[in-house]
């Protein structure tokens, strides 16, 4: 499978940036991921990401690290951070940018170490793919946590993407699937990725899933556009 995302990151890192990543989804026909945005500094990050990075502590695993901007910031602060991504290009860029500890793997296949903080930023919980897979995903995250560890994640309630009726309710298709489930494809320089599942989880749905899987779920802050940062900690029994 073409590493579309990684190819775009490598091009930018090596001074060959000429276009952005196109995305096609089941929600809208076409959008773009601006590649320079993936290389943003702390000051250029949304408040939700800044807050998450300030809360990160101990030994940190940055899941879905991409170009490594979050890992780089933490490393510069003297925090022991590992950047994990399943894109070869992304990990090559992380190394090139000076990140000392990297892992090329899908998080669900990774179990080598345990951490005090798991970071899942830029809607990293979306890696679960579908709502029905969220329990399995949370169980795996729990297995990567040290005692008193935490998961810091952001996501969005994408209900705003559906039409509203006159009394403020939303027209959500009643087809038996959760409205936050999206199918994506990425395209860069005429190369297309395979379609992949991604899930945006509203805070109530996340809290219910956490309750069923032994986690406390605390809403830390809400963003300006239906987005939020949550902190998950394991319940003590």
UniProtKB/TrEMBL annotation:
GO MF annotations in UniProt: methyltransferase activity
Pfam annotation, one family: Methyltransf_23
Coiled-coil ranges from the UniProt annotation: none
Keyword Transferase: yes
Organism of provenance: Flagellimonas chongwuensis
Keywords: Methyltransferase, Transferase
CDD domains according to UniProt: AdoMet_MTases
GO BP terms in the entry: methylation
Gene3D superfamilies assigned to the protein according to its UniProt record, in alphabetical order: Vaccinia Virus protein VP39
InterPro entries: SAM-dependent_MTases_sf
The protein's name in its UniProt record: Methyltransferase domain-containing protein
